[in-house]
Structure prediction request, 162 residues.
Amino acid sequence: MENSKSIKCSLWRWWCICRQLKKRGHGTHESGAFLLGKETGSSKCITSAVYYDDIDPKALSTGIVRLRGGATSEVWRICRENGLQVIADVHTHPGGAGQSNSDKKHPMVSMDGHVALILPHFAEAPFTFSKVGVYRYCGAKTWSSCPSPKLRWFTVWFEVMS
Prediction:
């Protein structure tokens, strides 16, 4: 894809992340995580996840994801100590993978180019890639939609505009 940047995640790690999101949401409410990793050339590789309820025990208590102000400082500490960066964030929705008004107005990372992933049906089907919502933050509370991820050689690939 011309002028694009890709994010990749091993199939095994993707399955583990989806499984954790499903478990943490109990099939009844949203859950989410920051996806961490490193940039290598024209792609970024997801190597780990920091789950919202691990950095803010009350993050999932209302049924939707709500991180309190200081919670993200723990993410930046983890990144700094391990030489990682936030590659994307991911959270689940009860129905489809479209962005809610709240998702659009309150990005988890409000930096141009940040990627937000939404898994439908509380991450019930981790390998239904065509249903995953992929959104790139463009600044000023605007977003662009990106193609759904694809599976290539046991790796989940997300193509996002650079």
The helical segments are 11-25, 52-55, 71-82, 101-105. Residues 92 and 119 are 5 Å apart (CA to CA). Residues 11-25 form the longest helix (15 residues). Strands lie at 4-10, 32-40, 43-51, 85-92, 115-119, 133-139, 142-146, 150-152, 155-161.
